[in-house]
UniProtKB/TrEMBL annotation:
Needed cofactors: Mn(2+); Mg(2+)
GO biological process: malate metabolic process
PROSITE patterns membership: MALIC_ENZYMES (PS00331)
Cofactor note: Divalent metal cations. Prefers magnesium or manganese.
Lineage, top ranks: Eukaryota, Fungi, Dikarya, Ascomycota, Pezizomycotina
Domain called Malic enzyme NAD-binding: residue spans: 281-539
Protein name per the record: Malic enzyme
Sites where the protein binds (S)-malate: 420, 470
GO MF annotation list: malate dehydrogenase (decarboxylating) (NAD+) activity; metal ion binding; NAD binding
Pfam families: malic, Malic_M
Recorded catalytic activity of this chain's protein: oxaloacetate + H(+) = pyruvate + CO2; (S)-malate + NAD(+) = pyruvate + CO2 + NADH
UniProt-annotated binding residues for a divalent metal cation: 256-257, 280
InterPro entries (alphabetical): Aminoacid_DH-like_N_sf, Malic_enzyme_CS, Malic_N_dom, Malic_N_dom_sf, Malic_NAD-bd, Malic_OxRdtase, NAD(P)-bd_dom_sf
Length: 598
């Protein structure tokens, strides 16, 4: 609801109904981004909080402010300058920042996230004005708990995103600049799922960097040393997780952009112990599985019948395979090993087999008993897959011959070229549709324009929209559900339930020319559905610890929506400093409230 009105669930700690307690006034209030409304403070608030004389006379609406802010944004010369403008706004007024993003979601998404956020991260030390999160240093492991403790009490933090900056958005090792990917992911959790922005914490684990350009840059702000690995690295990560669980025992930990050798290893180690998630391993897998399930439904196939070939067996490819494997196992009631028999992974040496050298632990379950590593075309001919996924970063590797061979054996082939950026796609939607006479069901890793062709009945020209497999449609809702039910861990069944929720909202279920997965334009509605499915699965699994969660779907949806933060100005209620909450006293350390730091 996120308004000044009361609701059935307005007594909840995360309720977004009613006024906001505020114990500060004057410039302290205006310098607190979660209180500041700028020119939108009402006449009463200006009197009650000593703002008269600090603001221009005219009282404006949030809509008027957003209009002015958009004009200022539009005047910036390039996307990086626009990204910097938005960061500055976030540091001043959280509601206006998110209102602007919400109103221009399609236009600004690529500016606050990939690819422009990648440019901002590469230039972190040169663009630096204010710190944007918690900086932990591997040379000061003994200070990890102390440094984290500055960010609040056990009741202050719901969602933590942490990165060690080793594998950022396809641009590699960015060292301490990785803090910006943590911050950007949290922006998406608020924008897409209503996670309260003043209850989140971006963290970077500064372990050094192997990026020579950064090491030679005299402006670089991180540890000027080679990246630390091995036992000391593991102790550092464990010190962080241990301290985070001790200080914020109800918080959800989201691992982001860790290196290939660490991402899955860290996730597998902590998953059984704490509520955690890795978007690169699980988020990509979840949104891709949702696209697969929707595509199979359109093609009148069941998940149990899937024959999946994944071209590219790195973190993303194996993560996708794992999500599909776990879903097959859940639906068929079989073991993971049995489910893995329906999945074939191909990497640089060819098909992964029991004779392939240097298989990772995660890859081994998919290795086939084969004498040699076949290439993609040979595997497609032999396996006759109904789903083909590309995470190889090898452009144009899904050739006309391969696609036509696949289409021989399945009426509606599901083909997902997911490599980013666009120039690295295994194929483009236009070719995939042309080679299959419009029968292919396509989703991509980047947005593409709709494709027109003579694919309707009697050769009538129709337009087909290829979906974008955007993780942001899935991971915020999983986080929201886990936070609200205070899950003690994130189980496979919770993730499968999330995927089913997304697949059930596939536009293609109503119109076969529509995308296989929902877009970011109605992502908050999707997040509610995902959160509901996640919470219900958590209750069934016995890992939901929150009390009095509604059981009826409609009530549960209302309960979820009431706790989703939205960019709406709520009235401020003056409370006495003595006895006030840390939030009311403006003591929460959020991005933009740490003062000017050069």
């Amino acid at each position: 609801m996120a308004s000044g009105s009361k609701s059935k669930y307005s007594n909840l700690p995360l309720s977004t109904s009613g006024p906001v307690d505020c114990a500060v006034s004057g410039t302290v209030l205006l310098n607190t981004p979660y209180f500041n409304k700028g020119s939108a403070h009402t006449a009463d608030e200006r009197r009650d909080f000593d703002l008269t004389g600090l603001l221009p006379t005219s009282v404006q609406t949030l809509e008027q402010q957003a209009k002015r802010a958009y004009q200022q944004y539009s005047s910036r010369q390039d996307d990086l300058a626009k990204n910097t403008f938005l960061t500055s706004m976030k540091e001043q007024n959280l509601v206006l920042y998110y209102k602007l993003l919400q109103d221009h979601m399609q236009e600004m998404f690529s500016v606050v996230y990939t690819p422009t956020e990648g440019d901002a991260i590469e230039n972190f030390s040169r663009l630096f004005r204010r710190p944007e999160g918690c900086f932990l240093n591997i040379e000061d492991i003994d200070r990890v708990e102390h440094d984290l403790s500055q960010w609040g009490t056990p009741d202050d933090i719901d969602y933590i995103v942490v990165s060690d900056g080793e594998e950022i958005l396809g641009i590699g090792d960015q060292g301490v600049g990785g803090v910006l990917i943590s911050s950007a992911k949290l922006t998406l959790t608020t924008l897409c799922a209503g996670i309260h922005p003043d209850r989140t914490l971006p963290v970077v684990l500064d372990c050094g960097t192997d990026n020579e350009e950064l090491l030679k840059d005299d402006l670089y702000l991180g540890l000027r040393q080679k990246r630390t690995r091995g036992e000391k690295y593991d102790k550092f990560v464990d010190a962080f997780v241990t301290a985070a669980r001790k200080l914020f025992p109800r918080a959800y930990i989201h691992f982001e952009d860790f290196g290939l050798t660490n991402a899955r290893r860290i996730l597998d180690h902590y998953r059984p112990k704490v509520p955690c998630f890795n978007d690169d391993v699980q988020g990509t897998g979840c949104v891709t599985l949702a696209a697969i399930m929707a595509g199979l439904h359109v093609g009148k196939k069941k998940l149990e019948e899937v024959k999946l070939v994944v071209f590219g067996a790195g973190t993303a490819g194996v993560g996708i395979a794992d999500q599909v494997r776990d879903a097959i196992a859940t639906y068929k009631g079989c073991s993971r090993e049995h489910a893995a028999k329906q999945i074939w992974l191909i990497d640089k040496p060819g098909l992964l087999t029991t004779k392939t050298n240097d298989l990772s632990q995660a890859q081994k379950i998919y290795a086939k008993d084969d004498s040699d590593g076949k290439g993609l075309l040979d595997v497609v001919k032999e396996v006759k897959p109904n789903v083909l996924i590309g995470t190889s970063t090898k452009p144009k590797s899904f050739t006309e011959e391969i696609v036509k061979e696949m289409a021989k054996h399945t009426k509606r082939p599901v083909i997902l070229p997911l490599s980013n950026p666009t120039r690295l796609h295994e194929a483009v939607p236009e070719d995939l549709l042309k080679w299959t006479d419009g029968k292919a069901l396509v989703a991509t890793g980047s947005p593409f324009k709709p494709v027109k062709g003579p694919w309707g009945k009697d050769g009538k020209e129709i337009e087909i929209k290829a979906a974008e497999c955007n993780n942001s449609v899935v991971f915020p809702g999983i986080g929201l559900g886990s936070v609200l039910c205070r899950a003690s861990k994130v189980t496979d069944k919770m993730l499968v339930a999330a995927v089913q929720g997304v697949a059930d909202m596939s536009p293609a279920l109503k119109d076969e020319t529509a995308p296989l997965v929902p877009g970011v334009d109605n992502v908050r509605e999707v997040s509610v559905r995902i959160a509901r499915e996640v919470i219900q699965a958590a209750i069934e699994e016995g890992v939901a610890t929150e009390k009095d969660i509604p059981t009826e779907k409609e009530d549960l949806d209302d309960w979820i929506k009431e706790q989703m933060w939205a960019p709406i100005y709520r009235p401020l209620k003056r409370v006495e400093l003595q006895g006030a909450s840390r939030r009311a006293k403006a003591e929460l350390k959020v991005v933009g409230s740490l003062g000017n730091v050069e």
